[in-house]
Amino acid sequence: MFIMNLMETKTNKIKVLNIVGARPNFMKIAPIHRLMQASKKIEPVLLHTGQHYDQKMSKVFFDDLEMPEPQIYLGIGSGSHAEQTGKIMMELEKVMLELQPDLILVVGDVNSTLAASLVASKLHIPVAHVEAGLRSFDRSMPEEINRIVTDSVADMLFVTEESGEQNLLSEGVSKDKIFFVGNVMIDSLLHFQKKARNSKILQQLNLERRSYALVTLHRPSNVDSPESMAKILRAFEKIEKKIKIVFPIHPRTKKMIEQLDLGKRINLNQNFIMVDPLGYLDFLCLMENATFLLTDSGGIQEETTVLGIPCITMRENTERPVTVDKGTNVIVGMDTEKIIAESFKILSGTFKKGQIPPLWDGNTAERIVDLILDS
Length: 375
Ligand code: UD1
Fold this sequence. Notes:
alpha/beta, Rossmann fold, binds uridine-diphosphate-N-acetylglucosamine
C-alpha cells in the first residue's frame, strides 16, 4: 500500500474520499474530482484500489483524463471475487480509520465499489453512490450484486436515468436520498471529445472514418464460455465479409482466447484487426468514427447514445434501458443470427435513430458537488 503524506492535514473543508478501482470508474470520477479540487469547501482524496493495474487498463486513463496520481494506492490486483473484495475491504478499513473522511464517494458497479461501500457504512461514514439504481434484474452478473448491495447501504444515491429512480423507490429507498443528476461519464465524453479528435489512432490502424465496426467483449458470461464465444465469433465471420472489425481486446478475453485456442481462427481474416486495450482518447476517437459498435459493455451503450452511433449489445439484458428506449442501442443476446441481422440493418441504412436522454448534458459532476455541499 502506498499513502501520500496526508494524514496530518486538518482543515475545515469536507474531506471526501473518492474511490476508484477498475477501468470504467476512471472516466466517472475524473470530472467530480476535478471540481472538488477547485472547490474551497471540499478536500478530495483520490484512492485507487489497484483492482486494475496494467498500464493499459489504468495508468493511461489517469493521463488521458488529466487526473492527478492517486494519493492512496492499495495495489490489490486480481483474484476471485471474495478474495479481491475481501482484500480491498481489509486495506480500506485501515485507511478510513486513519483518514476519517466525512464522506466516501464510489462510482459504478465493480468489486471496488462494493468493498468500499461496505467498509464505510460499517464505520458509520456516509456513502455517496454515483450511477445508483441501475438494474439488469440478472443476479448471475457480479455487477448486479454489487449494485444492489451498494445502493442498500448508500446515503446519497445519484441516478443517471429515470429507471434508476423507479428501481430504488420500489426497493424501498427513501425518496430524499435519491437525486436524478444525469450521467457523469458523459461529462468526460463531452469534455474530452475535442482532444480525442487529435488522436492518431485511425492513421495508426489504417482506417477510414465510418469504414469499420468496433468491438468490445469481456463479460464473463460471454467470454468464459466456449459456446458463447463460438456463437459470437460465427457472427463476426459473417460481418467481417462486409466491413472491417476492430477489436481492442480486454485481458480477460485474451486469456480465454488463448486457453480455447481460438487465436488462429480469429487471425485468419485481414478484415479482423485485433489490438491491445486502448486509452480513453484513442477509444473515444475510434468510437466517434465507427460505423457501429458491437459490445457487451455497460458504459459504451451510453456513450454511443450520446454520439448517435448505432450500438448492438451482445447481452441478454441491460441495466441502462434508456439507451434502448431513447438511444441508439439494441439488445441481441448471444444470438448469432440477431447479431448479423442488426449489423446488416445498419449497413443498409435502416437502423433506428436516437435521442439524448435528459440531463446527459456535461454538467452532472457540478450537480453532484453542489448536492454534496448542500447536504
Ligand atoms: C471488471 C468489472 C466489470 C467491468 C470491467 C471493465 C467487477 C466484478 N467487474 O471486470 O464490471 O466492466 O472490470 O474492465 O468488478 N487483468 C489484467 N490486468 C488488469 C486487470 C485485470 O490482466 O489490469 C486480468 C486478470 O487476469 C484478471 C482478469 O483480467 O483476473 C479480470 O479482472 P477483474 O478485475 O477481476 O475483472 P474484469 O473482468 O476486468
